[in-house]
Specification:
244 residues; alpha+beta; Arc Repressor Mutant, subunit A; 2 domains; 8-stranded antiparallel β-sheet; 7 helices
Length: 244
Amino acid sequence: MSHSRSKKVSNIKGLRSGAIENRMCKLTLSFSIDDVPKVLGGPVTSNVETLDMLCMLRQGPDQFVAICNVVLKDKNKRAVILRRGTGKVSLLETTKKGVNIYLVKLKVYPGSFNDVLLKGANGYIIPSVEVRGGKVTISLIADSKQIRVLVRKLDRTKIPYKIVSVQSADFRSYSPLCCLTDKQRQVLITAYEQGYYNIPKRTSTRKIAAELGIDHSTFSVHRLKAERNLLKCVLENENKTAID
């Protein structure tokens, strides 16, 4: 077993046992897309091949609202059919490559897996939701004590899920990267490493998007948001330093 694998297993065991000291952590968990009806607390028919959350609009104990990129299994069918009253999925745009951008609104069904996740919304944030290869992957950021409580509650729902990783989520206060989401950091760092910001450019946005396995429009959205957030973070810190 490799060192990184051993450390990952140790972190997961430490999280469940309470051995990990109280610090900010990033928990990534996954479950089968076949269990989505149980997660949402009601019947649902999914036609989703892949999904990436672009922007979180609301995360609370009663509702989850986000804008997502969705690739459909069958382009002639709707993305998701929800049980009446549990939420709404609205198509905002379809790109030339057939990627659909949806507004997803989900109401929280009492006692569901989703209910457990969102009831803790005041204690942690959900920066990432993805669907790939029949698996739904969700990342959470909170302190280790809050995550331990969450894991115990998820265990009681009896819905099979897997803890993919537990990592430190502490960012140094002087690092502008703390202003970015995981996706934004990945896009920006990859673009930099491949020479997109060189003069002249050594690559194109389409090539970088292809390597990351995402649609060109998705890459462009993440890159623009990353650049704006990074600039905002740097300028606000400069202004704060000047005032101090």
